[in-house]
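P.,

For your records, the input lines for the assembly:
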Amino acid sequence: MSGKFLFIAMLLFAAGIVAASIYTIGGPTYARQEKHDFDLLTDMTVLSSRLKCRTADVVLPQKLVEAELLNYCGGGGHILRPERRRVKDTEITYNRINDSEFELCATFFDTQRADLIRNGGSVFDTKTGCLSGTIR
Amino acid sequence: MSQKNELARFVRDALMAGRQRDEIEAALEQTGWSDAEVAEALSAYSDIDFHPPVPRPQNIVSARDFFVYALTFLALGTASIYLVLLTHHLIDELWDVSQGRYYNKRFMRSAIAAVMVAGPIYAWLTWRERKRLAKDPGLYRSAIRKWATYIALLVAASVFGINTIFALSSFLNGELTVVFSLKLLAIAIVSGAIFGFYLRDVDAQP
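Structure tokens returned:
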């Protein structure tokens, strides 16, 4: 096997691996959407954790606004400020089901992504794009 | 004057005086010079029948060679390491070992970028140097080129050997899965190709 043949074979192998990788993981548009969805679910998870409260007799806030969270379970409404969000251009909707159950919903590019399903666990509904939780 | 210079001067004077090479060799060995030292000193002069003795060309060391070969081998190292890592992550993606993880894909994109930049730089520099060497075989005497080639051979052979040990040890422990075997194969292909390429390069030197 000549050196020239090895050289060309190695370049073709590298080109093949790069092409197969791009085909498998998607291009820049897909990557941008994937990052958006991943960051959005992270924002929702942070908000969901903020709504958890171990103090007895505390009920969920009526609205998810900074003023309501100031006096909710130790304060800390700053979490709702836009600068604290990873995704600023997609709204997260808060649905108060009852005093202790809530849902956080948003519009994702693709809720079926493996990361979203696994990160959200059983509480993330891939059909609706909602993360449901309880106060305790 | 250093001992080496003294030896070189003696060999030159002896050849000028019309002494035969085996006579000079015998005299030096009797005096206590090692075989390697004697051979090196004698090899500095060509054995063609010409008087005065014709010095052989010496190794070349130049700043240009340092720049070109350091850049070439840096590009080779970057491209080959990221190519292996990219192949490993691709195998994980295809076999669902990474479970479609976001950070796995992000790493793959960085690795693609590294291979896409370092790969063509390496290929272009190598192709360019090959053309220069073909035009002027005297450039094969570049000391930096020789060192860089042997370092590449050493690293590639070490990686190939360690990889083979891992493969054999995993096989003997009954842990050789398809995914793991493919990853070891990727390392073997890349390190084996680099070793083969530079070994042929050494053999091809005039």
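Two observations worth noting. The first strand of chain A starts at residue 93 and ends at 96. Chain A has a mean pLDDT of 85.

Regards
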